[in-house]
Amino acid sequence: MRRATRHPVDYRVIAEHRTRGDVMLHVANISAQGFMVDNAPGLARGDRLTLALPGIGRIEAYVMWVSEERAGFQFERIIRLDAFVGLIDTIQPNPRLRRSR
Fold first, then answer.
1. In which band, very low, low, confident or very high, does the pLDDT at 37 lie, cut at 50, 70 and 90?
2. For residue 1, what pLDDT is reported?
3. Whole-angstrom distance, CA of residue 10 vs CA of residue 54
4. CATH code: domain of residue 82
5. 64 part of a folded domain
6. Is 70 part of any domain?
7. Which of 23, 26, 50, 93 is a good FRET partner for 42, with 20 to 30 A between their CA atoms?
């Protein structure tokens, strides 16, 4: 059961795939535990990617599910709350959508 609050975002990132090289992803929502993309270019469950996020740095994520063009990822580790708040402040397209603290 997923309990993490997902924050809608509009964020493009280049991720590194071990066999396919660089993969352009569009992150549609994110939480401290993972994220969802709405353009899963040939990704499969279990694929591992490394990406760089503002204020977080490089972090690995694993594909947990794929459905048509969407895919859900789980980070290799949970992002600390203070770092996650900073990340949301940086990549949230609409400040009114940011959760109150």
1. very high
2. 44
3. 14
4. 2.40.10.220
5. yes
6. yes
7. 93
> What are 18-33's pLDDT values in tens digits?
998 999 999 999 999 9
Say how many domains are in the chain.
1
CA distance 30 to 7: 5
Global pTM reads: 0.86
For residue 86, give its domain range: 7-91
Whether 35 contacts 61, CB under 8 Å: yes
Pairwise CA distance, residues 28 & 40, whole Å? 11
Alpha helices in 1-101, H assignment, sequence order? 81-91
C-alpha span between 70 and 68 (Å, rounded): 6
Residue 98 lies in a domain: no
> Residues for the chain: how many in total?
101
Q: Is 1 a domain residue?
A: no
Say which amino acid occupies 92. Q
CA-to-CA distance for 86 and 99, rounded, in angstroms? 12
For residues 94, 86, 73 and 21, what is the CA-based torsion angle, rounded to 10 degrees?
Answer: 100
